[in-house]
Amino acid sequence: MNILVINAGSSSLKYQLFDMTTQEVRAKGLCERIGIDGKFKHEANGKKVTGDTPMATHADAIRHLTKMLLDEEYGVIKSMSEIDAVGHRVLHGGQKFSESVLVDEKVIAAIEECIPLGPLHNPANLMGIHACEEVMPGVPQVAVFDTAFHQSMPKSSYVYAIPYEYYEKYGVRRYGFHGTSHRYVSAKAIELLGGKAEGTKIITCHLGNGSSLAAVKDGKCFDTSMGLTPLEGVPMGTRSGSMDPAIVEFIANHDNLTPSETLTMLNKKSGVLGISGVSSDFRDLDEAAAAGNDRAQLALDIFAYNVKKYIGSYVAALGGADAIVFTAGVGENSAEMRAKITEGLEYLGIEIDQEKNAVRGTVDITGAGSKVKVFVIPTNEELVIASDTEEIVSALNK
After folding, report:
1. Domains along the chain?
2. pLDDT digit string (tens) for 76-89?
3. Which residues pair with 346 in a beta bridge?
4. Residue positions annotated with a catalytic role
5. pTM beyond cutoff 0.85
6. What is the Rg, in whole angstroms, of the alpha carbon atoms belonging to the chain?
């Protein structure tokens, strides 16, 4: 079965075509600057191509990617009939979805109802779904929600200490994000621990430009660091992470900003970018810190310190830990950050082997004296989306 995975942003559209017989990625690419001047990247058969092409809408982007998939030189299929289904990443499913679902009119309406919870992402995700309906009519589509994995949290983990009516009336609660990533790497960790989910206590650290941690008990999410929106939790590339909420009013009053303008600052101008004044990219911060930039070093220190605090709190919440998992851009690629985060956690039985920590890929970096396993596991959210799509569509055909 060939599954096309779509991740639509407001002006971009990422895609991967999977052959689920082998779970091989046959082609992948990115359409960006949709509605502006239109640019694309495409990779297949060991060949890469980039260029410009008019893309006024997401439907135009879908038409372009199908053209590339059918291209004589860069394509991998002979006919669009070879695409059996499309899987979509959808940011916010609210409390409505605890698992992936086949897209129909009711699902589309439910995603629309969640737009106030995901105002930047859900409309773009819907554009991707509608574009595929237009360009590939009749092809089954599946929605895979970023929030679904976290729906297993107990109320004590997700209800905020504000008047309960706001939860009842507006659904104000912790939802969590990066769910497909946390689900994938926690399942891989369970395999490495022996394959039985029951009784396991795992802390997954998805660390990148956007970062979140999850406490996973018996294979299910027990708690997670992001909240109603992806702004809560540890400091990130441009997001502030958790802080005193009174700061919003304080800054708004002093700089004559609206609440929306203040939240834009907290989402797009804060985090390690705001601290360092250098960049939101951790690689740039490493270079700047090595060159003696104190604020870049401070940004790295603050990030590591906050991740460490979450790990400690989740060890307490779970009553121990069997494994810590590092994943995503920083978690997978920065041996220095992993060392910095785990330093001082020996009293919790967490130690890493520095030589193993320098190895890339899926690797057990557990130190000789550690009571807790420490893994680096590259995430694969697209494969999760493809696998869910295959499972749902295959059930339809039985």
Report:
1. 2-145 (3.30.420.40), 194-381 (3.30.420.40)
2. 999 989 999 999 99
3. none
4. 146
5. yes
6. 21
